[in-house]
Design goal:
This protein has 296 residues and is an alpha+beta fold. Helix content is 43%, strand content 16%. The chain folds into two domains: 21-85, Winged helix-like DNA-binding domain superfamily/Winged helix DNA-binding domain (Arc Repressor Mutant, subunit A, Orthogonal Bundle); 92-289, Beta-Lactamase, CATH 3.30.450.40. The protein contains eleven helices and eight strands. The chain has a six-stranded antiparallel sheet.
């Protein structure tokens, strides 16, 4: 028997629809329009054109875009008054991509650790710096600890050079000129690296010769990286420390990350090229997992 207090004809209000679902769909439609090739080619779109493409009232579209701009989801060019996708969307997309990148990369980083017995890192570019997203540690008693969240001058490192190795020369020059005075951040555990059992504690390794000292040398090194598929550093970044890095590609074929192995020269120095070839193979396998075209 139906309870008269809640049964048919009781006058009780119907279940409320999902809150603002129609409005959300309309907002997403505007974002899709601002992400279209037309908007990209024209440096954004004006309110009138967005309204035409959406088939909606110009005043309503204008108010909606203003609200989205307050949230950072779209931005407005004060000179042209055109709207385009905003920084907040790109920030959210980047966090989503990097979260998946870290999750997918774990078995590949472990492969490198198993093969080299050295700590392996996944690195990305942030302006003029390399940021480590994830690390897999080696089994050595004394080892480099995780660098997650630590950034350092990119052009001085093998991973940084790899991360810009698919750039056009003009873009590479502008980037280098903006960051050529950036200082490196030394490993917070570099004394431990040099105190490993395989290293003579009384030795004092000589500082290696830097492969990159100006833009022309950076350009030559980038060409070398493209040719062989990985980069090496031999005490350039830090005394007694060597490393290799290889590029990770996304589905568009763009470099989005680098797999890096860093270790005391006494352990890895005589096997740098073998480690580089291995890093390139593992990075290529990770790239395919991320949807990149197959590479040799």
């Amino acid at each position: 028997m139906t309870d008269p207090a809640i049964g048919p004809g009781s006058g009780a209000p119907p279940a409320a629809p999902r809150r603002n679902s129609a409005g959300l769909r309309r907002d997403l439609e505007l974002l899709e329009i601002l992400g279209s090739p037309e908007a990209d080619a024209g440096g954004g779109l004006g309110v009138l054109r967005v309204a035409q493409l959406a088939g909606r009232d110009k005043g309503l579209v204008s108010r909606t875009l203003a609200t989205l701009a307050e949230a950072g989801l779209v931005s407005r060019d004060e000179s042209t008054l055109n709207y385009r996708l905003g920084y907040q969307l790109y920030a959210l997309a980047a966090r989503t991509l990097e979260s998946r990148l870290v999750r997918v990369s774990v078995p590949y980083l472990r492969r490198m650790v198993t093969a080299t017995h050295e700590t392996t890192h996944l690195c990305v570019l942030r302006g003029g710096s390399v940021l480590t997203l994830a690390s897999e540690l080696s089994e050595h008693a004394f080892r480099g600890l995780g660098w997650e969240g630590v950034s350092t001058a990119a052009w001085r490192t093998s991973s940084g050079r790899v991360l810009v190795s698919d750039w056009a020369d003009d873009d590479l020059r502008r980037w280098y000129e903006a960051h050529d005075h950036d200082e490196p951040v030394l490993s917070p555990v570099s004394p431990l690296l040099l105190r490993d059992d395989s290293t003579d504690a009384t030795s004092s390794p000589s500082q290696g010769i830097s492969l990159v000292t100006d833009f022309d040398s950076l350009k030559r090194e980038v060409a070398h990286i493209r040719q062989r598929g990985y980069a090496t550093v031999d005490e350039e970044f830090e005394k007694g420390v060597v490393g290799v890095s290889a590029p990770v590609f996304d589905f568009r074929g763009n470099i989005i990350a680098a797999i890096n192995v860093s270790a005391p020269k006494a352990r890895l120095g005589s096997h740098l090229n073998e480690a580089g070839v291995l890093a390139a193979r593992v990075a290529a396998d990770l790239s395919v997992q991320l949807g990149a075209p197959g590479r040799t």
